[in-house]
Please model this.
Amino acid sequence: MNPFFIIVFLIYTAINAYIFYKTRRVIPHEKIVRYLFSVVFVFLYGAFFVVMLGRNVIPLGMQKILYFPGTCWLGIMFYLFLFFLLTDLVWGLACLFRLFKKSGNFLKIQVLTGYILTAGLMIYGYYRFTHPEISEQDIVINKSAGIYKELKIVGLSDLHLGVNIDKNRLKKIVQLANRQNPDLILIAGDIIDNNVLPLMREKMWEEFGQMRAPLGVYACLGNHEYLSGIEPSMDFLRKTNIRLLVDSVVLIDNSFWLVGRDDIQGNPNRKPLVDLVAETDTSLPLFLLDHEPVNLNDAEQNNIDLQFSGHTHFGQIFPINLLVKRMYETAYGYARKGNTQYYISSGIGLWGPPVRIGTNSEVAVFNVLLSQRSGEPQ
Model:
């Protein structure tokens, strides 16, 4: 078994044991109450790992029963642990320096407050997840693009379609994208979450067929297409109307180029960007799809005009977004290096807990102005 998985599982178990111990100390002593609490807690503790390990063999109906409460528990567990740990440290220091007298009521107040605050956070976070924002960005590119003076591009990333983000939710995402009346739709990878089975069973390719963009729908691969099994992932994607760019380029309407890179985690030996750009005409606008926003200088050095990426989710929940900001040169939003512009999306979907706290689910909309003017954009 993978040593990393064993370490993660042991940490996960230790955190759950800490929460279980604290909570059990304050619940009523009746046998039936304690028994029910233990059963529910063990179910929540094990649900996520059971469904992840058995995702290719467990029936889809059973996965739905396990996955949503299991992923919700990940979020609840995370915030309960942070709250209990912080309050234990503060209370311990206060008692050590005799700032307060020890009280038997502290544990009851601590546990009750922790669960109430965490429940409020989860409700708020679920609302943020289910109500994505439209993030508009004006992009000026000082190049001619044939007949096009303007382009409206919808950018989606990290749909993570599967058990939680099912066909009904995909339908809402497609409708939201269509309402922007885009000329072109770009998807920056991680279309699939952890398993192709629910996408095939629910025939999710039918919803992609409802996407409306005159110039087409294009995507690159993300690391989750590889985690889900690259062959079954490709089998699903071939059923959609998405044109997949895997270390390849395409000239659209003789006016501008799209470059799509393979995912760096899935294929560390992917084609160098310089080789892909060599297949294009850099006098025309160049748009790059690259799932993970690493080595941003690469795009600037190869005359890319706009790079669209995802992957980071901007951390998805606070305070993980603070950590992600330190991991990436640009973890979220707009950036510019020389003549190259970048947009890193926080994603329309998510992984794990179905909540957004301190971040937002989004559809990116690029209002691209194309010209032959020189100098910096106004």
About this structure: The first strand starts at residue 133 and ends at 141. The chain has two domains: 3-129, 134-370. Residues 92 and 102 are 10 Å apart (CA to CA).
